[in-house]
């Protein structure tokens, strides 16, 4: 009797989802190939996302380490962000200007040139 009830519940669940087991397998295979391609193309980003997701799913969101990291980020980041806003600048407009080293040629394009749309040739 329990097995018939389990079969009925699983068929009800499939009806709610609207997919058959073969469609689920195909979707999982698609996700697996996408994950492999992303890992090959962007390994650092993929591993960072995996570590972050594991940290959060492992209960790290409300840990003491997360609390300390968030408080440090707010302590140091919020005043600089507020000073930018008070000066009338938006954070995305701020581009770090590289310092010139001995080997820097005047013909090279700098970060500030790229931000302003200028190109040196």
Descriptive report:
The longest helix is centred in the middle third of the chain and has 23 residues, at 64-86. This protein has helices spanning 2-17, 21-41, 43-57, 64-86, 111-116. 67% of the residues lie in helices and 0% in strands. It starts with a helix and ends in a 5-residue tail after the last helix. It has five helices and no strands. It is mainly α and 121 residues long.
Largest sheet: none
Low-pLDDT sequence parts: none
Total beta strand runs: 0
Rg over CA atoms: 26 Å
Helix content: 55-70%
| Average pLDDT for all residues | 75
Distance between the termini: 81 Å
The fraction of residues assigned to DSSP E strands is under 5%
SSE order, as H and E? HHHHH
Structural class: mainly alpha
* Global shape: elongated
Helix tally equals 5
Could you write a compact summary of the structure shown?
The protein has 121 residues and is an all-alpha fold. The chain contains five helices and no strands.
Topology summary:
Elements: H1 2-17, H2 21-41, H3 43-57, H4 64-86, H5 111-116
Helix pairs in contact: 2-3
């Amino acid at each position: 009797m329990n097995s018939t009830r389990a079969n009925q519940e699983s068929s009800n669940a499939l009806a709610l989802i609207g997919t058959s087991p073969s469609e689920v397998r195909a979707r999982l295979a698609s996700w697996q190939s996408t994950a492999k391609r992303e890992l090959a193309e962007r390994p650092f980003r993929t591993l960072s996302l995996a570590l972050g997701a594991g940290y959060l799913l492992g209960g790290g969101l409300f840990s003491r380490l997360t609390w300390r990291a968030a408080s440090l980020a707010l302590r140091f980041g919020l005043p600089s962000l507020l000073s930018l806003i008070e000066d009338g600048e938006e954070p995305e407009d701020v581009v770090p200007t590289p310092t010139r080293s001995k080997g820097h040629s005047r013909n090279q394009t700098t970060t500030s040139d790229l931000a302003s749309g200028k190109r040196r040739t």
